[in-house]
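Protein chain data
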Amino acid sequence: MKLVLLSGGSGKRLWPLSNDARSKQFLKVLENEHGEMESMVQRVWGQIKGAGLADSAVIATSKVQVEILQNQLGGVPIIVEPERRDTFPAIALAASYLYSQGVGLDETVCILPVDPYVDDQFFDRIRDLEGALHNSGAKMALMGVNPTYPSSKYGYIVPEADENNSDYKKVGRFTEKPSEDRAERLIEQGALWNCGVFAFKLSYMMDHLLRAGMPMQYEDLLARYATLEKISFDYAVVEKESHIAVIPYDGYWKDLGTWNTLTENMGLQHIGKGAISEDSPNTHLINELDIPVTIIGIPNAIVAVSPDGILVSDKEASPRVKDMVDAGQRPMYEERRWGWYRVLDYSKFGDGTEVLTKRIGLKAGNNLGYRKHLYRADTWTIISGKGILVKEGTITPVEAGDVVTIEPGTYHCLKAFHDMEYIEVQKGEVVQEEDFEELFSSWNDIERHCVVSGAKAAGAGRNAL
């Protein structure tokens, strides 16, 4: 069995912590058994490793989430979507990737979201999808959650009524987000919550590609990805398939998609600097800034503070935040493969000059790409840690207290020996993330380039590399 985990999301429902670059699965708000904070994706990947499925798993995501996945999970296998085009194109690309990697057409492929909040047995149950496919002869097998209450937030899988006492049922129909009264009647009929987990043989998806006139090879489909229709897998495939089996899952499952549901499973009442008074029951505080936040006499609320903004909301009303957030707002905090950055200030002056100030963390052993900026100059003030600067053929050791200036058109990079933090002030006519031309990202390539070009170390020595 091959597992494909879908990682997406626009990051609006858990604003201001989530944004287009850091959607809900990357928020480190869950406490693990060691008392450490972890994200939903870290929790799920740990469970997959514990179930012995990691070697068979791959994550499909858009290119904007690649670096934060690498930051949180390390070198996990990733299928990169050039752009977001909904779940059918993503699954089609994943299937073509597996096919191009030599996976057999008879192999079972299981699709699941990257962020379910579940017990460990959830992943043991996933293995049973392969047997359900084989024993039922169905084209597709789903896993549904036994409902614990009549919710109007979830879709329902309604099985056909029969005397089949096996582990699977045949799917009769689907009902999307019914009223609570109707949901109660559906549960009486044996309906299950649709948790977005399903399996099929690889041949099933490749047949869909052939019938749609799409290429089967990964590189060919990747080149045509922008032409694929933006449509969900449910609409494009599932709702048109007449022979689907479903197996029930009896354990714990929850979609932590709103502040209300997320805080129910956080374990801590507040994260970050601040305090909550005793007369503020069921109120949670998450503060990513260095300024303290004090909450007095406000029950049933969520207060979330990040560089992107501040949310103060009644928990029941908090889902409305997605309708009030500016979709075009630039993220003020991002995690990258090498560390993280936080925007501290932005100013634009009368002559058109822009100045952007960031605080940047570079993890030990990591490096920035060897690149140049076309329209801006950077000034770095090293706050902590030690490393080396590579700047146009010169290799220089840097440490706390050093100030470095990078002029436009100057190739440069930084590598950390120990965890480093520094303040970066960007100044120019244009200040934007896309202003760079990069030669290398791998440190081995940078090192090889420096050696070939005869780079000389200024007080660092050859061993600094």
User: Anything to note?
Assistant: The longest strand covers residues 192-201. The CA atoms of residues 222 and 420 lie 37 Å apart. Residues 338-464 form a domain with the Jelly Rolls fold (CATH 2.60.120.10). The chain has three domains: 2-254, 268-323, 338-464.
